[in-house]
Amino acid sequence: MKFIVLSIYLLLLSLAGLPSLPAAGDSAPATRPNIIFLLTDDQRDNTLGAMGHPFVQTPNLDRLMRDSVRFRNTYIAQPVCAPSRVSFFTGMHERVHGVGFSSSYDLTEAQWERSYPALLRRSGYHSGFVGKFGVEYYTFQGRAAEKFDYWWAHDGWTKFLPKDVDSPSTKPYHRAKEDVITFIMGEAITEFLDGRPDNKPFCLSVSFNVPHGSQVTSMYPDYPEWHQMTRPANENPKLKGSPFYDTLYRDIGIQIPEETGTDPYRFIPQFIMDQDKGRRNQTYPYNYTRGTNLEHHIRYYQTITGVDHVIGQLFADLERRGLAQNTVILFASDHGLIMGEYGMGGKELLLDLSAKIPCIIHDPRLPANLRGRQLDHLVSSLDYTRTILDYAGVEALEFMDGRSLRPLIEGKQVPWREELFLESLFTMRDNPFQEGIRTKRWKYIRMYDGIMSYNESHVDFSRRQPEFEMLFDLEIDPGELTNLAADPQHAALVAELRTKVSTQSVALNERRETFRRVVPPFPRGSPPRTTPKKE
Ligand SMILES: [Ca+2]
């Protein structure tokens, strides 16, 4: 009973700060566009043909990019799956929303009420979610489907061929006609479009779960070392003859990074990040030897081409249904991936390969002369949240960071940020706490020994000296290979960037304290909080 009373109180408290919106069911203005947010999983930037990639085939996304605006300096708020997704939903840094693999809080219903899917639904949008929900830690486990009008999705990590496996994350897909997870998601998109009401705009979030390691490894799970990808996936009879997953990219002489298998401690020393505490021996073993790294590259790009195919089907479907001219499409990934570069694998770092994402936004109503542009503005994944709200005509909330990209997309001259704060608070696998800043020319990163289940005090770095620092001149070293942080010639610059990061870090910590007073956090492992049925 205590929890019910507490939760009603918390819900009322949290709703108090929300703007008034038309209730769901009210007739929405006809001018509001439909919105489709396409998110891929671990797809790094520059992995489309139109972005100049040497071999990947992505004809449909290439077409989208050439008809859209691309922001080619876009960074993720947190370079790992779950907290990155919470940041997309809420428009907040992990430090403020407090939800991640290594943090000590769960996402609450009150927080969810402040997410873009909830706000759009409340404003009259028909809402749908397809694929990997990926929040992992939230208080409404088992009831996420209620937060959308349409839901065909999963928690955790499903499999590439989910109908072959009986587990909570694969079961939702056992009713599908298709066998491959990417194509099942295409099936779900069609089901959503078939079932939507005609009198409302819709907001569909599609969360593809490729090219994530859990999917590419499970393309061929029938031998003991399957998670290391020691054998070609097309030994799996189920992939034989597939235009995507059989021979594609197998015989084209893919060049894997020369640094594959070399000493990773040349770049990030062992005292601050020990590769043998999970990175090399548990999670990305295939990136540490040349043969398996090649197999990873083949499968990685095969699955990107598979996603591209489903997205092409979606475009054709929108045309067929007469929806293409009023549907805004946003494309992104939840972060990038290191695949042998620096002698390592994985994400979680603030290096570009891990922290930079593809960013494409398509507004079919835009005049032709404004399409096909590639802009260099510094963009955050948090900008997506406000951009979606802006297109939907829904007011953004006070605690949302980021800015709407719409003025830039529409070709307006507006003052824009000159620098972007970056953070990574994922501390599993011996990852350090990381903070950084990207300016037009420079990237500065500082690291501190990480703590699992960190709390507020652990991310107060105001009285701690950085334990390791990196500085890159992106103009002459876009691959971020030469760390200039200890170079005396750059001491003044390092001092300046250190101060800038500290200022933003302290400000974010203060922001979190204010937010906690409005929407209290929910400690992980607490008894479940029962919520009233009516919300
Ligand atoms: Ca991911």
Write the layout of secondary structure elements.
Elements: H1 2-16, E1 34-40, H2 59-66, E2 69-71, E3 74-75, H3 81-90, H4 94-97, E4 105-106, H5 109-112, H6 116-122, E5 126-132, E6 150-154, H7 181-195, E7 202-207, H8 213-217, H9 279-283, H10 290-320, E8 327-333, E9 338-339, E10 345-346, H11 352-355, E11 360-362, E12 373-375, E13 379-380, H12 382-392, H13 406-409, E14 419-424, E15 433-439, E16 442-448, E17 468-473, H14 491-518, E18 522-523
Parallel strand pairs: 1-7, 1-8, 2-12, 3-13, 5-6, 5-7
Antiparallel strand pairs: 2-11, 4-18, 8-11, 9-10, 14-15, 15-16, 16-17
Helix pairs in contact: 3-12, 7-10
Bound molecules: calcium ion (CA).
Calcium ion binds next to loops.
Oligomer type: single chain
Task: State the strand order across the main sheet.
Answer: 6-5-7-1-8-11-2-12
Q: Mean pLDDT, nearest integer?
A: 94
Bound molecules: calcium ion
CATH superfamily of the domain at 42-408: Alkaline Phosphatase, subunit A
Q: How much strand?
A: 5-15%
Contiguous low-pLDDT stretches (5 residues minimum) are 1-14, 21-29, 531-535
Classification by helices and strands? alpha/beta
Helix content: 25-40%
What is the fold-level CATH name, i.e. the topology of the domain at 42-408? Answer: Alkaline Phosphatase, subunit A
Number of continuous helical runs: 14
Total strands: 18
The whole-angstrom Rg is: 22 Å
Question: Which architecture name of the domain at 42-408 does CATH use?
Answer: 3-Layer(aba) Sandwich
Highest-level CATH class of the domain at 42-408: Alpha Beta
Distance, first to last CA: 18 Å
Write down the overall geometry. Answer: globular
* Major β-sheet profile: 8 strands, mixed
